[in-house]
Design the sequence.
């Protein structure tokens, strides 16, 4: 018990790996094909990247400085999150990132933010198949509607989740690791 309190993340990782291993191989090839048109759409700011936890983030955005996007800490242990996302990919889920650019930004700043956000994802190894970096306020469903199938949006913004018409949503104000584990277990 002593060790559990000292290394809670290690124990969480072991727990997740046990679940993933026990789930592996449950599906026949045909089932995997049937399940392929499923998409998980991840927001970034406030969902996987702690932009709002960066001191002075709003001032920097107003001044068109990309610093907060670059230095934002992940909201989760990325080793755990990436493992789960990769397992979901292996179960046929398409992984999409759909994130807004800064409010009232110039074209130059939008381009700089696009680059910085992609660098952030690469730095933390987040696995995705497709990315949409859209103007602030754009309806998120428009970017992936053409993919069809069943789509789940993972987003911290209640208004955006309310406007999601392509399937279900996961509230990223709650622990998304738990929600993703449930998704994997139900596969
Ligand atoms: Mg957000």
Sequence:
């Amino acid at each position: 018990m002593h060790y559990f309190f000292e290394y809670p993340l290690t124990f969480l990782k072991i727990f997740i790996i046990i679940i993933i291993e026990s789930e592996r191989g449950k599906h026949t090839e045909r089932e995997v094909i049937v399940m392929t048109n499923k998409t998980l759409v991840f927001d970034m700011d406030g969902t996987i990247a702690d932009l709002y936890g960066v001191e002075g983030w709003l001032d920097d955005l107003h001044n068109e400085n990309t610093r907060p996007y670059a230095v934002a800490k992940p909201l989760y242990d990325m080793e755990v999150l990436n493992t789960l996302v990769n397992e979901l990919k292996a179960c046929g889920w398409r992984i999409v990132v759909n994130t807004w650019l800064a409010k009232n930004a110039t074209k130059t700043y939008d381009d700089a933010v696009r680059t910085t956000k992609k660098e952030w994802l690469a730095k933390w190894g987040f696995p995705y198949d497709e990315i949409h970096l859209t103007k602030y306020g754009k309806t998120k469903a428009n970017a992936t509607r053409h993919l069809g199938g069943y789509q789940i949006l993972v987003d911290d913004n209640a208004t955006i989740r309310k406007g999601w018409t392509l399937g279900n949503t996961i509230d990223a104000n709650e622990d998304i690791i738990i929600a993703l584990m449930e998704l994997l277990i139900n596969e």
Q: What stands out?
A: The pocket of magnesium ion is lined by residues 43, 45-47, 155-157 (CB under 6 Å).
